[in-house]
Amino acid sequence: MKRIDPTLDAAKRNAAIRAVAAVENKMVLGLGSGSTASVAIELIGARVAQGLAVTGIPTSERTAALARKLGIPLTDFSKHRRIDLTIDGADQIEAGTLNLIKGLGGALLREKIVAEASARMIVVADHTKQVKQLGDATPLPVEVVPFGWERALEKLQALGAEAALRRVGDAPFVTDGGHFIVDCRFAAIADASGLQDQARRIVGVVETGLFVGLASEAVLGRDDGVTVLERQTPAAYSPPDFARL
Ligand code: A5P
Fold first, then answer.
1. What atom in ligand 1 is closest to the CA of residue 124?
2. Of 21, 178, 215, 239, which is the most exposed, with the fewest CB atoms less than 10 Å away?
3. Ordered structural domains, the chain, with CATH
4. Residue with CA nearest ligand 1 atom 5
5. What is the pLDDT of residues 129-153, one digit of tens each?
6. For the whole prediction, is pTM greater than 0.85?
């Protein structure tokens, strides 16, 4: 989803600059997807060029290509089961809970695997992504297996969504994992955790773009600065003392 508003571009950059300041030498990083995360990756690449030693686990093929171009060494879960810090974007950020909707860029599955493995996840976004309650203006992307997607879509509709298969032209959009995406428009999502559980119980649903309790903080950029939001509910994941694998 490309935005050409220069004010928003400055906002994204300010958010990325603030988040990348948290990157330290020797960290294993989760590298997010989307336009804001890409700015952060470029900033990390510039620091790597100056001698910063980090490795990254990319959340999409597109991000992997960008990281390689910038000379950021890549790794995977065969070598590192835990990630020190992930910097990723979001489509909606709920103030207070920091629950998220992600996946308008189509990378939600790898993004969630990486977020869940991370001791700390900083969300970077322009200020327009903050909402009081998830849903409404932004559809919830749900990744489904291609076989029988029509049935999964019907069951998602039964949960109250206006649901549509994401397409590129006439063809279904296909994720890096070879799945389809059903975009589900809910009027408002009052119980993100409950909806996540219900959606995951549908046969054929691989994962949803609801990120509940995964973000540690959110850096919301404006053209003249940032606001940092912290989660006001307990963490879903307590990191162990990191012994690098
Ligand atoms: C990718 O699948 C998404 O989860 C992105 O993180 C999200 O779409 C945010 O992208 P922008 O930073 O481009 O808005």
1. 12
2. 178
3. 6-130+211-229 (3.40.50.1360), 140-204 (3.30.70.260)
4. 34
5. 999 999 998 999 999 999 999 999 9
6. yes
